[in-house]
Design brief:
With about 120 residues, the protein is mainly alpha-helical. Helix content is about 50%, strand content about 10%. The chain is built from 6 helices and 4 strands; from the N terminus they run αββββααααα. A two-stranded antiparallel sheet has the order 1-2. The longest helix has 16 residues. The chain is elongated.
């Protein structure tokens, strides 16, 4: 369990200031909330305190940009990527980054990519 939880728990701890229904709080049962986290195995490793600070760091993460682009690819194509899609995903990610993470650029790069324009009925 620890091998996965060591990676997935810290980002969740950044949200400790929010209760189960999303209301901000500074204490729980009379004790102060500790929302500090240490991200590891990322391109923005380090200590952070709370969700806003972690979000600010993740905005600049190339890993997050690449992951977002891959998830967008899956959504737009209605399927998981195959080996032949990697070039299109990388080109789309580059366009997205070059255009300051503008969603319109991501959508345009997606719809003009060969994997989108020439989708095989076998993959749909």
């Amino acid at each position: 369990c620890a091998s996965c939880h060591n990676l997935i728990d810290p980002p969740g701890f950044a949200f400790e200031h929010f209760d189960g229904i999303g209301q901000f709080r500074t204490s729980e049962n009379g004790l102060p909330i500790d929302a500090s986290v240490e991200l590891v195995s990322t391109d923005v490793d380090g200590l952070m305190n709370g969700a806003p600070e972690m979000a600010h760091a993740l905005v600049g993460s190339a890993m997050v940009h690449e992951c977002f682009t891959k998830q967008w690819f899956r959504f737009a194509h209605g399927r998981r990527e195959v080996a032949g899609d990697q070039c299109d995903i990388e080109e789309t990610a580059t366009s997205f980054s070059d255009q300051a993470l503008d969603m319109r650029a991501l959508i345009l790069a997606t719809v003009v990519s060969p994997s989108f324009r020439y989708a095989s009925s076998k993959t749909l």
